[in-house]
Amino acid sequence: EQPSAPSPIAAPLRELPWGQLNFLHTTDTHGWHGGHLQEAQYSADWGDYISFAHHLHKRADDDGSDLLVVDTGDRVEGNGLYDASNPKGKYDLDIVKQQSIDVLTVGNHELYQRNTSDREFNKVVPDFKNSYIASNLDIYNPKNGERTPMAQRFRKFTTKNQGIRVIAFGFIFNFQGNANNTVVQPVEEAIKEQWFKDAIDDKEVDLFLVAGHVPVRDSPEFDAVYKAIRDSNWDTPIVFFGGHTHIRDYRKFEKKAWALESGRYMETLGFLSISGLGTGKKDEVEAAASPDYKRLYIDNNLYSLYHHSGKNASTFDTELGKNVTKAIHEARKKLKLDHAYGCAPHDYWLSRTPYPSDDSILTWLENQVIPDTFNFTKIPSIILTNSGAIRFDIFKGPFTIDSTFLVSPFTSGLRTIKDVPYSAASKVLQLLNNEGQILLPDLAAVSQTDRVDLDQLRAPFAPVNEDTFFHAHTSHAHDLALEHHQTFLGRKKDGDKDKDDTPQVPGYTTKDDAGTDGDDTIHQPIKFYQVPNCISSNVSFPAPEYAAAYGPVNFRPVHISTPEKVDIIYNEFIENWILLALEYLGEKREKKDTSAVLEGKSMTDVISDWIKKSPDWACPKEKDV
Ligand SMILES: O=c1ccn([C@@H]2O[C@H](COP(=O)(O)O)[C@@H](O)[C@H]2O)c(=O)[nH]1
């Protein structure tokens, strides 16, 4: 772990369900390869993950089983280690490549910006030459402009010790928000291609491995792949590894097909094992009628990693793991990620507090950051931003360069549409938040533009279903972490009357299709709240008129005047939605009617500029960083 990372907190653990074929799975790491430096529960880094995988490989070699490592995309955007360098990923991509990964896919965040996907093609695909799979993604080759598959469409390989014959695919969900240098082929179309039909027709295969930046539940894409495989290969076991919705989840398709999703932000190392698979060595190993699938969501901290690898502080680190940890530290230093712009006076939560409330980030943006930033415009304005642009909580204490990218890494600039009748402008928020009679899918359906992606307005933690929403969010051991406590939270021993066995570490309490025993750490549950798609602030509106209604002391407003016209200001990422809402409201505007505001600064710039200037956020002298 990083030198400044808080020590992990001991807690009761469930055991690793080791089997014949074992998997480690990461997804949606979003650059958090240095681990969580303010949360002890997730404080291990990518170097530790490398050491961990090494020990599990060794275990597999020793007992003749196998281990495969999978990553399902969104490795970029969301942490200073990736976002603070120029070019982005200057250090992070070389750090990630040190892990040996068997199956790797793209995510939507690798495709928003042309530069990111070009670099993915020119660097990351060659870095993972044998394992990068792009079953439904093409790119216009930056060298010659020719459309070409991003990477191989599938791969067939045999596991090292057992000789299990695996065919692996790598999909991305039917994403439409990509830059125009890539082409995402709808999954339902890709599976009609001959190469796919031939691959699933193969009878010399013991397991289909479907990796994808695709949610495992309510997933038309994985449902289509499952059906296609079963139509041509009725019995061969299938395993899915998914992502994108940032949750822990495990779905049963049927007894020979399960799907694992392993959270987000390097909080979770997903583990899955299958026993009872057939192998190429037919004489030696007979396939079971019903292979046994098991899963464990490992909290990414050294306490868990030591335990599951049977190592301790003096035996855990490998040479490579240590070097990668060091490289992360060096990169963080070069990027000055610990430099503080100010100090947060208290914690601000994205979804762990009701909205609106005093400790909600969205309320803080709406009531303080946005009005203070835009009050220079003396024109009445409605400023809108999507809550999805905000990615993480702010903890009391130093708000650093790194924090800026944790909270909002995106570069899309702020734009304006001028002179919109207030009667229409004031209804845009309601439309975008699905609060009126017309809902977003209806708006999307009437869209003339083909670049409106429903996913864009998805709130940052839009639930897959209520259960997964309430059970699948970030745990947060922050208070303990900041004090560097090493608290033993073991279960009650016989005769230990004054201790109870209630879990003490707050965190995930996942409920999935296999039950409630998936989290390795037995956590105290955390409550999460829904947040709206978008928030808005009115700035430079006429002051309300007051009248003395109850005598000279008690005044109350009698007339709140509204402007006739306003400027709408918004984050460019939601521009298509704003235009669509205005069109629906009878105020059609086009791209040419929009212009940059604040010289095209992003929400990220707005937040850090505000923090630098705000006296309430000045760091106390003795704590200055
Ligand atoms: O430029 C951007 C890009 C993305 N967003 C927000 O992020 C989500 C998608 O993130 P996932 O991690 O894939 O869920 C998108 O829906 C937007 O809310 C953004 O605001 N700006």
Automatic annotation (TrEMBL):
The keyword Signal applies. The lineage of its organism: Eukaryota, Fungi, Dikarya, Ascomycota, Pezizomycotina. InterPro entries: 5'-Nucleotdase_C_sf, 5_nucleotidase/apyrase, Calcineurin-like_PHP, Metallo-depent_PP-like, Nucleosidase_C, Pesterase_C1039, YHR202W_N. CDD domains: MPP_YHR202W_N. This is Calcineurin-like phosphoesterase domain-containing protein. Gene3D superfamilies: 3.60.21.10, 5'-Nucleotidase, C-terminal domain. Residues 347-579 form the Putative 5'-nucleotidase C-terminal domain. The keyword Signal applies. It holds the Pfam family NadN_nucleosid_C. Residues 491-502 have a biased composition (Basic and acidic residues). It comes from Zasmidium cellare. Keywords: Signal. Residues 22-247 form the Calcineurin-like phosphoesterase domain. Residues 491-521 are annotated as: Disordered.
